[in-house]
Design a protein that fits this description.
Elements (H helix, E strand, L loop, with lengths): L1 H24 L2 H15 L3 H10 L10 H5 L3 E12 L5 E17 L7 E18 L2 E4 L2 E2 L10 E4 L2 E4 L5 H9 L2
Length: 178
């Protein structure tokens, strides 16, 4: 009898290891929505942080929320990563808004066509936020529904942009126009 129980336990451990291994090799367009679902069901800080950012507007695009543009894209996902968080859930987080199969075109003065276009690209917006009680901040600004919130970084395909890059706002404008 103990031999059968041992075999069953080993079988469960092997199946769990296979499932975890498969999860880690999944492409982002499958893994990120799974992670978002898991986080929304298990992390008490997920909803207040993500909902605040979803309701925020894209800078210089009045009334256009991140949620209205990210949620309509393929395999979209909002995930969070705890950077420095206390037991009460207060501290620093990175929030990622991912969308797949997005076409992004921005003006470019350095090539012959005058445009840089990424077709069927993965776009990731990264927000560095601080949570203190019910207050969510990006830098010194409180994140509120209907108010502009600027991501810290944007990744489009293999290109990385920060707020100091000349293409940062045009990419946000392109996102708002999707």
């Amino acid at each position: 009898m103990a031999n059968k129980i041992g075999r069953i336990l080993i079988g469960i451990i092997v199946l769990a290891a296979i499932a975890v291994g498969i999860y880690y090799i999944l492409p982002g367009n499958i893994k990120n929505p799974l992670t978002a679902t898991l986080q929304s069901n298990t992390n008490d800080n997920y909803a207040p942080i993500v909902d605040a950012l979803k309701g925020a507007t894209i800078p210089k695009n009045k009334g256009i929320t991140y949620d209205s543009k990210i949620s309509v894209q393929d395999s979209n996902a909002w995930t969070i990563k705890e950077i420095s968080v206390d037991d009460a859930g207060n501290g620093s987080y990175d929030v990622y808004a991912d969308a797949y199969k997005v076409t992004v075109s921005v003006e470019n003065n350095t090539n012959d066509t005058g445009m840089v276009t990424h077709t069927n690209a993965h776009i990731r917006l990264t927000f560095h936020v601080n949570k203190n009680g019910s207050e969510i901040k990006i830098g010194d600004k409180v994140v509120e529904a209907g108010k502009a919130a600027t991501p810290s970084e944007i990744d489009v395909a293999e290109s990385h942009y920060t707020s100091s890059d000349e293409y940062f706002q045009p990419i946000l404008n392109c996102l708002a126009g999707l």
